[in-house]
Amino acid sequence: GVWTWRINYAYTAEENIVPWLLAGWWEPSHAADTRLLGLTVGRLLRAGQRMDLYARAAGYRHFERGLADDTWSVALSLMAMGHGHLPWSERLAFRWGFGWGLSYALDVLAVERIKQANPGDRTNRLLGYLEWQVDVPVELLFRSRWLQGCFVGGSVAHRSGIFGSASLFGKVSGGSDFVGLHVECLR
C-alpha cells in the first residue's frame, strides 16, 4: 500500500474557506494572528484513473502567540485527490484534493473564542473538518531520486460547527480557517 507523509505550516486566515479562501483571499486574521505546525499521515484506500481516495490522520500544534496557551488538535479525514498531467503525456503536473472529517482540539482555539465572543455563543473542541490542497511534484522543479514522489504546495484547513446546525458539534456557529504551505511524500 501507498502511505503519505506531510508536514505543513499555516497561519490563521481572516476569511472563511468558502468562498473567500478558495477564491484567493488569503489575508491573515487581524483578531488572532496565530500559527500551526502539522504532521499528516495518510494511506491510499483506492487508486483511480482520475482521482485517488486517502484516509488521513493529522496532528497539529497550535501556536496561540499570547492569546491563549499553545495547544494540540487532531483531525481524521478522507481526502479525494485528483491529478492533472502535462499535455500529451502521462507525466504528473499537479494534484488537487478536497478532504472532510472531524477535528478535535485539546482546548478551544483562540481564534474560535474570539469569533464566538458574544454572550450565548457556544464553543466546542470537536468540530467538522474540511481541507483543500493543491501541489506540484518536486521533480518538476528539482531532479533528485530522493525527492521522487514528493510534492510542494498549499492548503486551506477549516474547523467548523456547520452554522450551528449540528448537535454533534454542540450547535457551534463559526470556527477557524488556516492557510499554509506543505511538503508531502508518497512512500
Could you give a short account of the major beta sheet? 8 strands, antiparallel, barrel
Query: Given the structure, what is the number of helices?
Result: 1
Mean pLDDT equals: 88
Radius of gyration from CA coordinates:
17 Å
- Strand tally, please? 8
Distance between the termini: 9 Å
Shape designation: elongated
Provide the β-strand percentage band: over 45%
Q: Order the strands across the largest sheet as they lie in space.
A: 1-2-3-4-5-6-7-8
Helix content: under 10%
Pick out the low-confidence regions: none
Question: What is the string of helix and strand elements?
Answer: EEEEEHEEE
Structural class: mainly beta
Could you explain how this protein is built, in words?
The model has no long low-confidence stretch (mean pLDDT 88). It contains 1 helix and 8 strands; from the N terminus they run E-E-E-E-E-H-E-E-E. It has one helix at 110-115, and strands spanning 3-12, 35-46, 51-63, 71-85, 92-105, 126-137, 150-160, 175-186. It is 3% helix and 53% strand. The protein has an 8-stranded antiparallel beta barrel. By secondary structure, it is mainly β. The chain is elongated, with a radius of gyration of 17 Å.
